[in-house]
Amino acid sequence: MSSAVSLALRHLVAAVKVHQNGWRAGLCVAGLVAVGVVAAQGVRPPVDAGLPAAVPAAATTPPSNTAAQASVQARAWFVRMQAAAAKSNFQGSLVVSSGGAVSSSRVTHYAVDGHVYEMLEAMDGRAHRVLRHDDLVHMLWPQTQVAVIEKRTTLGAWSTTPQAVDVFALENYELRLDGVARVAGRDAVVLWSQPRDGLRYAQRFWADRETGLMLRADVLAPSPTPSPTPAQADASWQVLESTAFSLLDQGLPARPQAVLQAMQPPAAYRVVRPQQQVTTLEAQGFALLRPVPGFRLAGTVLRGMENTGKRDPVLHAVFTDGLVLVSLFVETYDEKIHRGEAHNQQGATSSLSQRRGEHWLTVVAAAPLATLRLFAAALDKRSP
Amino acid sequence: MNAPPLPPEPSLPSEAGLQQMSSLADGDLGGLHDGVPAALAAWRLDGAARQAWHSYHLIGDVMRSEDLAHTAAQDVAFMNRLRERLDAEPAHRVPEPPAAAPSARRLMGWPVGVALAASVAVAAVALLVSRAGAPGASEGAPVLASSGAAGVDTQALAVNSAGVLRNPRLDEFLRLHQMARGGLPVSAPGGTLQRADLQMPAGPGR
């Protein structure tokens, strides 16, 4: 290939020298440019094995095999995304667009010797920073001079391990590759997770083709007006929320000390340490009598609500379907602060609050309202 | 048809006047361009015609209920009181006619469109944030001790000076929900550090 290119180049250069002016020279220059472009294509890295096989060779493979292959490749990319998030060093600007509102954060992440250091700084709205060193999380609010220090329990962390996508996720979503794109100046592979039922949203992820880091994630719901033809299938989904890097530096040297120093709250700050205690539904007197299809209980924590001034603990039950988390908060009903059922939605995340007997339930999830209602009805007081 | 004899009045109503009032009450005068203006003028100017008008309606009312028997003077007093009340009401702004002046035209153009778009966006966000749950939320019988009827009114949300809907408890729930995902959004797709205090979009380009 390269010898043919160099031969063509030599002929073209010679031709330009001969026809120094006039249309023939112009033609030869154009030919040189064309050859240059073709040569440049040739020296690019070979197409990643992760991309779906679009070559006519598919004619020799039965369609089901190609689909299965694409699914396997998609799963491999998901695993790669999770690994990259845990192990990379990066810094960038993350922009969240949800329901017409946009917010931006500065994000820093270092992984050193098996430890993780993270910093997220809100660039609009109330100024605050979230800093993390492994499981220790500090949240600092400069305007009110408050620091919240707690240990995080990642009950609903994305359960895909570095080795394999959670099988449970595969039961609830069909994962497939969805083309290539460019995000934050990086080439990316697009992945699509198609829900298998109407209780969850679809998601689309863009993974850096070189490093696997997730560059963008969209949450999508079926459009109210279905598209008339399959060709317009893309128009049948509406984006509820989009989280994307606008600027990103990867592979930078880790500076964990910067994060550790920023974590220390200044002396003038009031420090709040919410209490939490891992527990079980049974221990708190509840039973899951009506589980929601496709979701399993990931864990339960009893949380002190010191941040809000009312100190009675709240039961926080976390459910997962492999990709998406649902939180169910249960507290004692108090007519002074709990008034009327309410449903809020900001972008993809909805919350539903309602009373059930002597308890007040709040469901929070990036899921359709119907799913939230099912969760509000899922728990019962355990019969003694 | 002629009404039965009426209580004594300064002047007796003329035959024509009675006929006019009778036809007006029966709806026989046709449209605005027929005898109605004349009949109305008669009512306004002629006390006897007014008396006849009052009588016709009084008969109908008393047939329905004896409580409705009252004098014509009460009607006049009512009209006067109504007129006073209407005058006392604050004047509503009369919509200005579309300005054709060149100075007004300078206001048109892209800033107006942008402001419209921004206000629509603000309204949309406000609607999204404050939407109340629909009734009929009880799927299946609640087994927990008798559920109090869930009201449909929106939960009281405090509005801070930035014009943003806030509920500290919900904020905290959202934060705990996001933290349970496992930290930064990049490690868990679909979950971000969302805050209930996202500012309303204030400018163009949204």
Number of beta strands of chain B: 2
C-alpha termini separation of chain A: 79 Å
Give the radius of gyration of chain B.
Answer: 33 Å
Distance between the termini of chain B: 72 Å
Quaternary structure classification: heterodimer
Derived from helix and strand composition plus strand pairing, the structural class of chain B reads mainly alpha
Would you tell me the overall average pLDDT of chain B? Answer: 59
Strand content of chain B: under 5%
* General form of chain B: elongated
Number of helices of chain A: 6
Element string of chain B (H = helix, E = strand): HHHHHHEEH
Order of helices and strands of chain A: HHHEEEEEEHEEEEEHEEEEEEEEEHE
* Largest interface pair: A-B, 88 and 60 residues
Mean pLDDT of chain A: 81
What summary fits the major beta sheet of chain B? 2 strands, antiparallel
Helix content of chain A: 10-25%
Specify Rg of chain A, calculated over alpha carbons: 27 Å
Explain the overall architecture.
The complex is a heterodimer of chains A (384) and B (206). Chain A is of the alpha+beta class. Chain A contains six helices and 21 strands. In chain A, the strands form three sheets. Chain A has a twelve-stranded mixed sheet with strand order 7-8-9-10-11-1-2-3-4-5-6-12, with helices on both faces. A seven-stranded antiparallel sheet of chain A has the order 13-15-16-17-20-19-18, with helices on one face. Chain A has a two-stranded antiparallel sheet with strand order 14-21. In chain A, helix 1 runs antiparallel to helix 2 (23-43). The longest helix of chain A is centred in the first third of the chain and has 25 residues, at 63-87. Chain B is built from seven helices and two strands; from the N terminus they run H-H-H-H-H-H-E-E-H. In chain B, a hairpin with a 5-residue loop joins strand 1 (158-159) and strand 2 (165-166). Classes of the chains: A alpha+beta (384), B mainly alpha (206). Chains A and B meet through helix 3, strand 1, strand 2, strand 3 and strand 10 of A and helix 6 and helix 7 of B.
